[in-house]
Amino acid sequence: MKKITVNANTSYDILIEGGLLKQCGRLISETVKSAKCVIVTDDNVDKLYGDAAVKSLEDSGFTVSKFVVPHGEESKSHNQLISLYNFLCERDITRTDFLIALGGGVVGDLTGFCAATYLRGIDYVQIPTTLLAQVDSSVGGKTAVNIDRGKNLVGAFKQPALVITDTDTLSTLSEEIYAEGMGEVIKYGMIRSLPLFEKLSRGNSKEDLEEIIAECVSIKRSVVQNDEFDTGERMILNFGHTFAHAIERAAGYGSVPHGKAVAMGMYMITHAAEKQGKAKKGTSEQLKKCLEINSLPFEFKISHEDLYRLSVGDKKRTSDKIRVIICPEPGSCEIVPLDLREYRELIDLV
Questions:
Q1: Do residues 50 and 103 lie in contact, with contact meaning Cβ atoms separated by under 8 Å?
Q2: Which region, left, alpha or beta, applies to residue 293 given φ > 0 means left and ψ of -120 to 50 means alpha?
Q3: Residue 260 to residues 75, 101, 143, 339: CA-CA distances in angstroms?
Q4: 70 pLDDT above the threshold of 70
Q5: Are 124 and 208 in contact (CB under 8 A)?
Q6: CATH 1.10.1240.10: does it fit domain 175-208+219-347?
Q7: How many CA atoms lie within 13 A of 145 on its CB side?
Q8: Residues of 251-273 as b/e, b for ≥16 C-beta within 10 angstroms?
Q9: Cα separation of 21 and 119, whole Å?
């Protein structure tokens, strides 16, 4: 079993190995000193892993309740959050109890934000079951829900008490959902690891999956420890995300999966940056080939006007500037502040 420790405001371990889900009760009991918990999951994941998680927890002496949401981005909403708050009140969940996020990024974000705000903060454990969640959203403490004006605009920083990554859960993913996770994996190669990018460009990522997950998590751990609250270096983890969030809004939340939107966002920003001389010639073509071999799209039909309108409210914007993440070549990245005129000029090159 691989163990990666994140030394943030609250330190915690990320455990990575196949078969850990059935041991989650014992693993959690070694970290969380409470007798009562609520599993938050979605209807798809519940059918696959809900019973196994409950059994393991009850065998370890926990009193367990379960809150199940519909699968999909629509559940990362204010309405579901309020329903979850009410459920916790009905179950008499106190500050000494904890939540478990069993599922993908939507479940993790919803659960984490609830944990950050219910009773002004209770513990939660992440058990990510998708590739995207295992390499990215379960680590680092960013939690949020969506509102009509944008994705992740209402959120909080809340580090989990523990992350249990069972790589066996990836075997039940469809090829499409697996590919979606590869969008975030490729992001890590682009921003920090040329060897990882080159490995991914050859395809066959499933052969070294545990190692790939561990490398992505190690990269994110390093960045989060240096900038836990996203004021500087951590922004590099948003490579491709400014355009991705605009794509998701333009298509309607849930229509374009997040990982695929990130893939398109990475290519679009790199293609435009290359035209401006901010990225080396050929970088966008390298990225395009890597995306294609991993069954990911690289373009989205959207007008420059809509792309600007839907992205200019990004969280990385200050009053008169927006910070854009650009990779001059695979394995390196820069945070480039642009005024709004310069940002519009960049978009016109997409």
A1: no
A2: alpha
A3: 19, 23, 20, 28
A4: yes
A5: no
A6: no
A7: 20
A8: eebeebbbbbbbbbbbbbbbbbb
A9: 28
**pLDDT the model gives residue 156:** 97
Q: Of 140, 206, 202, nearest to 173 (Cα)?
A: 206
**pLDDT at residue 150, rounded to an integer:** 84
- The encoded tokens of residue 221 equal 């751990």
Whole-angstrom distance, CA of residue 175 vs CA of residue 330:
25
2-172 and 175-208+219-347: same fold? no
* Residue from 68, 48, 276, 94 nearest 284 by CA: 276
Report the pLDDT value the prediction gives residue 315, as an integer from 0 to 100.
67
Q: Are 238 and 327 within 8 A, CB to CB?
A: no
Residue 11 has a pLDDT of 95
Residue 11, C-beta contacts closer than 8 angstroms, at least 6 positions apart: 5
> How many residues in the chain?
350
Distance CA 244, CA 206 (A): 25
Helical H runs in the chain? 24-29, 43-45, 51-59, 78-90, 105-117, 131-132, 175-192, 194-201, 209-226, 241-251, 258-275, 283-293, 304-311, 340-347
Q: What are phi and psi of 67, to 5 degrees?
A: -120, 115
Structural domain boundaries in the chain:
2-172, 175-208+219-347
Distances (CA, A) of 225 to 127, 206, 234, 323: 21, 28, 9, 21
Bridge partners, 69 (sequence order) = 42
| SS3 assignment, position 345 | helix
Tokens encoding 153: 């605009």
Q: Are 139 and 163 in contact (CB under 8 A)?
A: yes
Residue 270 corresponds to which tokens in the numbers above?
A: 């790199």
**Closest to 185 (Cα-Cα) out of 222, 225, 229, 134:** 134
Contact criterion met (CB below 8 Å) for 164 and 15: yes
Contact 99, 130 (CB under 8 A): no
Enter the pTM of the model: 0.93
CATH number for the segment(s) 2-172:
3.40.50.1970
How many Cβ atoms from other residues are within 10 Å of residue 323's Cβ?
A: 18
